[in-house]
């Protein structure tokens, strides 16, 4: 199959959506599929797919821009700056399927009129509202296949779209229990360390995490992430966690060692589409403290013992204490994590797209 993956952040960011789709693209390419990736970053060594640079303006530039439909966030502004270059680089007839999770501008560019159009595959990495909302720009949404990253999305959309339930994955050759490297990151050796891997945006609730950890006398909080609320978060930590807070930005290659260098993982988003960070932390042997939901219990399975109502600060603080009491007892790879290996996930993508191509051919 000839496949195109397109997203503004490819090779510029290593956040959840970028990591997930690039991992699928790479695994499919290594398995023999013809895969092209278009993004705004630069080519990277050791990737099995072909990369083509398409320029865009970085999302940080747009943080102070007004938000209105369809420019609902700084990432939508970034998406709009990416679409003109994508239109110039994209030749629909070259591909059997085009895959993205970016709406609306990348989505519109990939669906432009053409004599031979590839299958349009939309992945619900950032939510499924384009697939079911009927207001404003969402009325223009359309796809040949919808990859639902959790059962809630599948149930909500299966009657309208051709859907497949496919979770995200984790690189089990990189994320595994192992020895801590605290000196490498400048972390204290004599304190329990809690890690948040979150963007500084309201929905990730990093400020709530700072307030909760402040209730623990000796815990040290590390936040790996950036975003518009970075200054507000730092100011709050300066008051509530003096000498017990560190904000860092790391390359993707350093993330496995970061997970192995802490004692517990905390993520406070109330409802993630999937959340790669949950299974990265779980694969690394950490207790995963998050908001109790059916969706997160489905993801974590046996690893869901540290979930609670995170909007209840007393319950949250108690659960963080419980996680730290267990400590970094990394006795081996967690049971059940194998179902999230990227080759397994990529195989599910391949089977779904192949089925859709076969159905299209039979109709013709």
Automatic annotation (TrEMBL):
The organism's taxonomy opens as:
Bacteria, Pseudomonadati, Pseudomonadota, Alphaproteobacteria, Sphingomonadales
Output the Pfam families linked to this UniProt entry.
Glyco_transf_4, Glycos_transf_1
Which molecular-function annotation in GO is an example for this chain?
glycosyltransferase activity
Chain ranges of the Glycosyltransferase subfamily 4-like N-terminal domain: 16-174
Tree of life domain: Bacteria
Residue stretches spanning the membrane: none
Q: Which UniProt keywords apply?
A: Transferase
Does this UniProt record's set of keywords contain Transferase?
yes
Indicate yes or no for the key word Ribonucleoprotein. Answer: no
Q: What is this protein called?
A: Glycosyl transferase, group 1
Domain called Glycosyl transferase family: residue spans: 181-324
């Amino acid at each position: 199959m000839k496949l195109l993956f397109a997203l503004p952040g490819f090779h510029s960011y290593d956040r959840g959506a970028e990591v997930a789709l690039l991992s699928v693209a790479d695994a499919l390419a290594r398995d023999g599929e013809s895969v092209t990736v278009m993004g705004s970053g630069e080519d990277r060594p050791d990737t099995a797919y072909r990369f083509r640079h398409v320029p865009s303006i970085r999302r940080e530039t747009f943080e102070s821009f007004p938000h209105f439909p369809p420019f609902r966030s700084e990432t939508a502004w970034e998406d709009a700056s990416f679409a003109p270059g994508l239109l110039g680089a994209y030749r629909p007839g070259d591909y059997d399927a085009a895959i993205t999770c970016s709406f609306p501008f990348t989505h519109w560019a990939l669906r432009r009129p053409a004599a031979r159009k590839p299958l349009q595959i939309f992945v619900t990495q950032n939510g499924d509202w384009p697939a079911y909302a009927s207001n404003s720009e969402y009325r223009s949404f359309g796809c040949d296949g919808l990859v639902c990253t959790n059962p809630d999305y599948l149930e909500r959309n299966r009657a309208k779209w051709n859907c497949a339930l496919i979770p995200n994955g984790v690189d089990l050759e990189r994320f595994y229990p192992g020895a801590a490297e605290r000196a490498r990151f400048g972390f204290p050796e004599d304190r329990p360390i809690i890690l948040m891997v979150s963007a500084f945006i309201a929905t990730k609730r990093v400020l709530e995490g700072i307030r909760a950890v402040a209730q623990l006398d000796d815990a040290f909080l590390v936040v790996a992430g950036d975003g518009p609320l970075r200054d507000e978060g730092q100011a709050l930590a300066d008051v509530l966690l003096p000498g017990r807070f560190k904000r860092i930005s790391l390359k993707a290659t350093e993330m496995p060692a970061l997970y192995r260098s802490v004692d517990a993982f905390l993520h406070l988003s109330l409802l993630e589409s999937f959340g790669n960070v949950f299974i990265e932390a779980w694969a690394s042997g950490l207790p995963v403290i998050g908001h109790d939901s059916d969706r997160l219990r489905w993801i974590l399975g046996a690893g869901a013992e540290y979930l609670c109502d995170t909007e209840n600060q007393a319950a949250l603080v108690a659960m963080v204490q419980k996680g730290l009491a267990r400590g970094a007892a990394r006795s081996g790879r967690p049971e059940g994590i194998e179902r999230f290996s990227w080759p397994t996930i990529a195989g599910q993508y391949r089977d779904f797209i192949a089925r859709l191509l076969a159905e299209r051919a039979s109709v013709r």
